[in-house]
Amino acid sequence: xxxxxxxxDPAAGDDLDLLFAAAAQAPLLPSDALLARVxxxxxxxxxxxxxxxxxxxxxxxxRPGFWTRLAAAVGGAGVLAxxxxxAMAGVMIGFAEPAALSMVTGGIYExxxxxxxxxxxxxxxxxxx
Amino acid sequence: MALDLAAVSDEALMVLYANGDPAAARxxxxxxxxxxxxxxxxxxxxxxxxxxxVAQEAMLRLWxxxxxxxxxxxxVSTWAYRVVTNLCTDRLRRRVRRPxxxxxxxxxxxxxxxxxxxxxxxxxxxxxxxxALSALPDRQRQAVVLRHIEGMSNPEIAAIMDLGVEAxxxxxxxxxxxxxxxxxxxxxxxxxxxxx
Lengths: 129, 196
Known about the structure:
Chain A is built from 7 helices and no strands. By secondary structure, chain A is mainly alpha-helical. About 11% of the residues of chain B have low confidence.
């Protein structure tokens, strides 16, 4: 606060400052009726609650996509990528039938793998030891 | 999440109100109404009923302007005081024009009876201040009340009264000098003689 201007009577000026201070600390309290009228006006003129902004509303409404949900189901995008790679490798091995794989299967079946016996009539591992 | 509105600025409350928050309306009402009511009453010579009408009208204008309120535009309190000042000025102009009050014509605040002087209470001092304020020209009264009772800064008063800062300083200085002169003969009646 700035220094109050000098008055013709310094003592009177001091008294005035005391009066001002007392007045500032003695606010005029509004009646309940006035507050009720003011609040009623506020309610009357208050805009309705604002709708969410379009961007927020669209984001809230958008469901996660197929791949997002699938990745979440298997444990994440990395796991999903690994599963995809393994599946692709299996398909390629099935088509290409590489020689290295024939050596392995030939050692067991003594022939190339032309067909897979899904219900084998005997298990070669049982004959060992 | 519940927001503690007591710590929220008036300007933010205006935005909340415009967004439909009912608690913001109540907080603004309780925060601003007492201030502008007291200011209006002092400017209008202590007429409480008229001051209540002015306060309600000012708050009504506040609610109406809320949807268009820009937070960086002005302080809500400054805007409200400005509206109240204009409303009071209009009402004062409509009143029957009173003759200019000379210092010698300043109304007596209290009787000079010694017993009554000793028994004066704070309400009497406030009445004396109000009587002296009412004797000031309207603009001086507005400036003095805003500066010394409402605690506004000179730039804020300049914005409220649509004046320059220097004009505000001049008004408050002259107003305070006049008040001191009006009250100087009543120091005893105001109970300050015994306190020194």
